[in-house]
Amino acid sequence: MKQTDASLTVAIAGNPNSGKTTIFNNLTGANQHVGNYPGVTVEKKEGWLDLDGRRLKLVDLPGTYSLSAHSIEEVVARNYIIEQKPDVVIDVVDASNIERNLYLTTQLLELDVPVVLALNMSDQAEKRGIITDHKLLSQLLGVASVPTVGNKKKGMQELLKAAIAVADNQDVYQPFTVNYGKEFEQELETLTQLVEQDNSVIGNCPPRWVALKLLEDDPEVIKKVGQQKTAAAIFAAADESRERLEALLGEAPSAVISDRRYGFISGACSEAVQFSGEKRHSVSDTIDLMLIHPSLGLPIFAFLMWMMFTLTFTLGKMPMEWIEWGVGVLAGFARSVLPEGLLSSLIVDGIIAGVGGVIVFLPNIVLLFLAIAILEDTGYMARAAFVMDRIMHRIGLHGKSFIPMLIGFGCTVPAYMGARIIEDRSDRLVTMHATGFMSCGARLPVYILVCGAFWPENAGNVVFSIYALGVLVAVGTIKLLRGTRFRGMSEPFIMELPPYRVPTVRSLVIHMWERSWMYIRKAGTIILAFSIIMWVLMTFPRLDSYSQDYHVLIDDATASYEVGNMSDTELDSLVTGYESAMAAESIRNSLMGRFGMLIEPAIEPLGFDWRMGVALISGFAAKEVVVSTMGTVYGVGEVDEESGSLRGRLAGDPLYSPLIAYAFLVFVLLYIPCMAAMAVFLRETGSFKELAFQIGYTTGLAWVMAFVVYQGGRLLGLD
């Protein structure tokens, strides 16, 4: 059905790494909406723009190599085209790898949708000696084609105008249909006529395409046809056609279809694509000689990761201090205008201290996501996966497994969903069990807080060591599971290495903002709600009396100061100490404090006290909540300027030491991911048994590793 909120609906399709999303971002800019397709977790991006008096709605389809039913992305892209019937589909083709990219084009043409080709990265193709006559290619394929350079915004207007012309039937081209050979076409025609007899089978699909998919044994199409009254007759005819074709041609119809498509593509490219006489190495090939070198690749990858974390801390230090100062000013203002009591405590100690304690790390989060976006957009992330593939295969896991594990550095939720690309269930489960040890972005605020308090000059190095430890634990987990529950080795796979590109500022900003906004949105929803809950649990029941009359002690100190018996500094120190003691007694008496005291014997061997235990428990909701909870614990009561920040309070607490702090970081790294991640884990695995194993294994391992760090450090005299 046609959309009512746009005069034209334009779907943008293409292979991964073809520059499809770059073109989408260039065309739509900030006019985007990001959500999910109904019923699945695949991301859906829509954008809008106006051109020549027309309102265009652009839909960025998931990147796919084909429109078969081998992955959820392929099914989603195909179903959108079939069911939503966009006015035109822009097929973004990597001009430097045109033959492989055109395979998707042939399938789009078989769906009988208006298509415009965007021959993207045409400048890179020319540098590699690949010259495409786009006008001749248009005649051969029967579709309009426009050379583009997405990261430089070249050809964008021409592309849109070509799309509008095609949608308005002003295009002079007639799409070409692949001929599958005389015998195949006869069987295909017979089956097509049978399909045409039942309109419920066809739906929005071309009858020839339905027949072709039946011969390919496409599970999604078979499922749909199976719901119709004529299904038995159609299936019988399709089975007979497959048997006849396989006997006649000596191979399965699906193989014949693939060969004929590539044959058609090869013929078109031999006419329209020219290669320079001299075979030249591309810039990407030259760079790869070093970056994916068997000996140099891994050290370079480790160095880049170390540099990323070091720069994140170095560049983020000053803006983080600005925000920290702003949060302090806001808390002081709120405390000055609000009457002393529960409302003031809720606003200052619950909301401002909790949410502010997380927002303060936004500069570091933004810088980290910017660095990741640069590595992705330049094409290096694919090289990182390639470098790690050798190691992954040696430890018994599929090379594809590193891709979701890499995603896990951003967020565990999409990392679990990314494991769908792994066909074998055992490989997929092992990958998901190991992925939780990748330090997600939500853990970073905890690392920044603790490292900033105990290792202010070497925070980047300490954080890097935690990230590296997570990778080592993941490797050990893979070896353990492969040797016990999931015995066996995985097969290697072919990994695509896209050419290096210079990322555009617009693309980097969009990618960085999308991820950072998720962090901000979480701070404004989950963390805000949980900060209030934690404040309630740490405020009630209220303490009727304290072990000492602190108010009298404060009055005595003030009186002594007024007669000149103590200095300003001494008075501030005494008052702060009394108020902190009052706050500590109040929290210890609260519901959460009592629970923390209850579990303290279990975590005491790790060097943790009940406050750390409370913070770790809150991390089950979201790892950032560990910081907001500690902010709430330490935010009760007035504090002076020197000890006002949470980092200052932690560093100045005599019960804590760098060794305890590192053991705490190890526990945060290894114990169970957040509730949202566990919900996705259960949905993706469909097994409560695997969920119970994940919870028990990660939490148990976290306790053991933190115990080894703390007690081992004490034996070595490091405490």
Task: Please tell me about this protein's structure.
This protein has 719 residues and is of the alpha/beta class. Among the domains are: 160 residues, Rossmann fold, CATH 3.40.50; 94 residues, Helix Hairpins (Orthogonal Bundle), CATH 1.10.287. The protein is built from 33 helices and 9 strands. The strands form 2 sheets. A 7-stranded mixed sheet has the order 2-3-4-1-5-6-8, sandwiched between helices. The chain has a two-stranded antiparallel sheet with strand order 7-9. A hairpin with a 6-residue loop joins strand 2 and strand 3. Helix 19 packs parallel to helix 32, helix 23 packs parallel to helix 24 and helix 25 packs antiparallel against helix 26. The relative contact order is 0.07. The N terminus is likely disordered.
Q: What is the CATH level 1 assignment of the domain at 8-167?
A: Alpha Beta
Q: Report the average pLDDT across residues.
A: 82
* SS class: alpha/beta
Number of continuous helical runs: 33
Number of strands: 9
Biggest sheet layout: 7 strands, mixed
Provide the spatial order of strands within the biggest beta sheet.
2-3-4-1-5-6-8
Give the end-to-end Cα distance, rounded to a whole number of Å: 68 Å
How large, in whole angstroms, is the Cα Rg? 31 Å
CATH architecture tag of the domain at 8-167: 3-Layer(aba) Sandwich
Instruction: Identify the quaternary structure here.
Output: single chain
The CATH topology of the domain at 8-167 is: Rossmann fold
Low-confidence stretches: 1-5, 277-281, 635-644
Give the fraction of residues assigned to helices: 55-70%
Shape: elongated
Look at the structure and name the CATH superfamily of the domain at 8-167.
P-loop containing nucleotide triphosphate hydrolases
How much of the polypeptide forms β-strand, as a percent range? 5-15%
